[in-house]
Write a structure and sequence with these properties.
The protein has about 500 residues and is mainly α. The chain has 21 helices and two strands. It is globular.
Length: about 500
C-alpha cells in the first residue's frame, strides 16, 4: 500500500474537486442526482480518511506521516508539502465527518433560494479548504487553503442567509481578509529571516536563528490572522452576525471546523516557529482568552435569538481553548486540541438543533418558544443533552475541553508568571458557572412549560430520518469522548510534547 501512503493526503484534500466537476455537468433540475453525487463525494473523501486512520502509526505520533514533499513554485521556494501527525489527524477526521453530516442534513433542509447544486458545490469547496489546511506543511500552501474557505462561506451567508445577510457576509469577509493580510506579511518575514524557506518543519528547526525582537513583530502579524479566525475578544464581532444570518449548515461548518483553523494555526505555526515571542505574547493571549470567556457568557445572557446565543457561547468556549494554548504546556495544548474537537461536535450539534427548531416554529426568538418537550420531545431531549455537554457536564465531551484547560493554567510553562495564570484560572472557573447559567436559561425558555398560544394548535413534527442520520454520529461521539477521552488525548499527546519541546529549550 505504498501508493496509498504517497497519495492519501492529496486524495483526502482534492477528491471533493472531482465531485464539484461532476456536479457542474448535472442539470439543476436533477436534484436527487445532485444530492447523491455530493453525498458520495463526501463519503469517498471520508473513506480515504478511514484509510489514513487505519494506516496511521500510533506509535510515532509526533513524526509527520503520509509525508508528500514535491517542488511546487520554484521561483519563491514554496513546496507541495503535506503531512499529518497526532495534532492534525483528529481535526482532519472532524472536518470529513462534519462535511458528510451537513450533506445528509441538507437532504430536505435546503434554505431559500432553493438551489441545491450551487449550495452543495460551495460545501465541497469548503471541504477542500478545510482538509487542505490541516495537512499543509508549507506556509504558502497553508495560506492558499486557509483563504479558500473564505469565498464559499461569504456566498453561503450572502445568498442563503437571513434578512441582514449582506451586512454579515461583508463583515465576515473584511475581518478575515484583514487578518490574512497581516498573516501573509508574517509568513514573508519568516521566509526572509529563517533561511528562505516556507517549509514549516524546516522553519521550526531554524527558530533560534530569528532574533527575539524580530520574533515579537512576526508573531504579532500571525496573531492577528489567527485570532480573528478563532475569533478572540476583541476581534470576535463578526462571528455573532455571521452565525445569526448564515443558513443552518453554514453555521455548523463555521462553528465546527472553520474556527479551528485559527487555533490550529497557533499550534502548528506561530508557537513552534516563534517560541521566544510566544513566551512574551502568552500572558496577553491568556488575558484576552479569559476576557472572552466572561464576555461571551455575559453576551449570551443578553441574547433574545437562539442562534445568536449559541454564537456568543462559541466566543466563550474558544476562550478556554486559547487559555490552554497560552499556558505553552503539553497539558494545556492537549486540552486545547481536545477542546477544539469537543466544541466542533457540541456546538455544531446545537446549531443543527437551532436550525430544526427554526424550521418548525419559523422563529428563533426565545420569548416565543417554549414547550418543546411537549410538542417534539425527542428534539427537546437532544437539545438538553447538547446543552449539558456544552456547559461541561462530567461524562460528556465538553468537560474534557474545559476542565483540563482551566487546570493547565495552574502551572504554565517556564518563563510565564504563575500568579498571573492562576488568576486566569480562577476567572475561567467562574466562566463555567456563567456557562451553566446561560445554557440552562436557554433550555428552560425553549423546552419547558407549555407551547405558546400561536403554536399550541400546530402539529410540530419530531426528529425525522435525515436529522437522525446527521445527528446520531455527533451525539454518539459527544458521549464516547466524554466517557473515554483517551481516544483524542492518546493520539495528540506525543505530537503536542514535540511542539512544546522548544519552550523547555528557551525557558531552561
Amino acid at each position: 500500500m505504498d501508493w496509498f501512503d504517497s497519495w492519501a493526503l492529496s486524495l483526502a484534500t482534492f477528491v471533493p474537486i472531482i465531485g464539484i466537476a461532476v456536479l457542474a455537468f448535472v442539470p439543476s433540475a436533477r436534484e436527487q442526482m445532485i444530492k447523491t453525487v455530493a453525498l458520495l463525494t463526501t463519503l469517498a473523501t471520508a473513506a480515504v480518511g478511514v484509510g489514513i486512520l487505519a494506516r496511521f502509526d500510533y506509535g510515532s505520533k509526533s513524526v509527520l506521516q503520509f509525508d508528500v514533499n514535491h517542488e511546487w513554485i520554484k521561483a519563491i521556494g514554496s513546496r507541495y508539502h503535506m503531512g499529518v501527525d497526532g495534532i492534525s489527524i483528529p481535526l482532519l477526521a472532524l472536518s470529513m465527518l462534519i462535511s458528510i453530516l451537513c450533506v445528509v442534513y441538507s437532504w430536505d433542509h435546503f434554505p431559500e433560494p432553493h438551489n441545491p447544486k450551487a449550495f452543495l458545490i460551495l460545501l465541497l469547496v469548503l471541504e477542500v479548504g478545510m482538509n487542505g489546511t490541516f495537512v499543509s506543511q508549507d506556509l504558502i500552501l497553508f495560506f492558499v487553503f486557509f483563504e479558500l474557505v473564505l469565498l464559499p462561506m461569504y456566498f453561503m451567508i450572502g445568498v442563503w442567509g437571513g434578512p441582514n445577510r449582506q451586512y454579515a457576509s461583508i463583515k465576515f469577509f473584511l475581518f478575515t481578509l484583514f487578518g490574512s493580510a497581516l498573516m501573509i506579511l508574517g509568513f514573508l518575514a519568516l521566509f526572509f529571516k529563517a533561511g528562505h524557506t516556507f517549509d514549516i518543519p524546516t522553519l521550526i528547526q531554524h527558530a533560534s536563528a530569528i532574533p527575539k525582537s524580530t520574533q515579537l513583530w512576526i508573531f504579532g502579524g500571525l496573531f492577528m490572522g489567527f485570532a480573528i479566525k478563532v475569533p478572540m475578544f476583541p476581534f470576535h464581532t463578526w462571528l455573532p452576525d455571521a452565525h445569526t444570518e448564515a443558513p443552518t449548515v453554514g453555521s455548523v461548518i463555521l462553528a465546527a471546523v472553520l474556527l479551528k483553523l485559527g487555533t490550529y494555526g497557533f499550534i502548528r505555526i506561530a508557537i513552534p516557529i516563534l517560541p521566544q515571542a510566544a513566551i512574551s505574547w502568552a500572558p496577553w493571549i491568556g488575558g484576552l482568552a479569559v476576557i472572552g470567556i466572561i464576555y461571551g457568557a455575559l453576551g449570551c445572557l443578553a441574547q433574545k435569538d437562539m442562534k445568536r446565543l449559541i454564537a456568543f457561547s462559541s466566543v466563550a468556549h474558544m476562550g478556554f481553548v486559547m487559555l490552554g494554548i497560552a499556558t505553552l504546556t503539553s497539558f494545556g495544548i492537549n486540552a486545547a486540541v481536545f477542546g477544539m474537537v469537543a466544541h466542533g461536535l457540541i456546538t455544531g450539534m446545537l446549531f443543527f438543533c437551532a436550525g430544526s427548531i427554526q424550521e418548525r416554529f419559523h422563529t428563533r426568538e426565545l420569548s416565543r418558544l417554549g414547550g418543546l418537550l411537549v410538542q417534539a420531545p425527542k428534539l427537546g431531549w437532544i437539545l438538553g443533552f447538547c446543552a449539558m455537554a456544552s456547559l461541561g457536564l462530567p461524562g460528556l465531551a465538553g468537560f474534557w475541553g474545559e476542565f483540563p484547560a482551566i487546570l493547565s493554567a495552574y502551572q504554565p510553562a517556564a518563563g510565564l508568571s504563575e500568579s498571573l495564570f492562576r488568576f486566569y484560572m480562577v476567572v475561567a472557573a467562574v466562566g463555567t458557572v456563567f456557562a451553566a447559567g446561560y445554557l440552562l436559561w436557554m433550555y428552560q425558555r425553549t423546552a419547558f412549560g407549555t407551547p405558546k398560544d400561536e403554536f399550541a394548535k400546530e402539529h410540530i413534527h419530531d426528529v425525522h430520518g435525515p436529522e437522525w442520520l446527521a445527528w446520531a454520529p455527533l451525539l454518539a461521539l459527544i458521549f464516547l469522548l466524554g466517557v473515554y477521552p483517551r481516544f483524542v488525548f492518546g493520539v495528540t499527546d506525543e505530537a503536542v510534547q514535540h511542539v512544546t519541546a522548544a519552550f523547555h529549550a528557551v525557558g531552561g
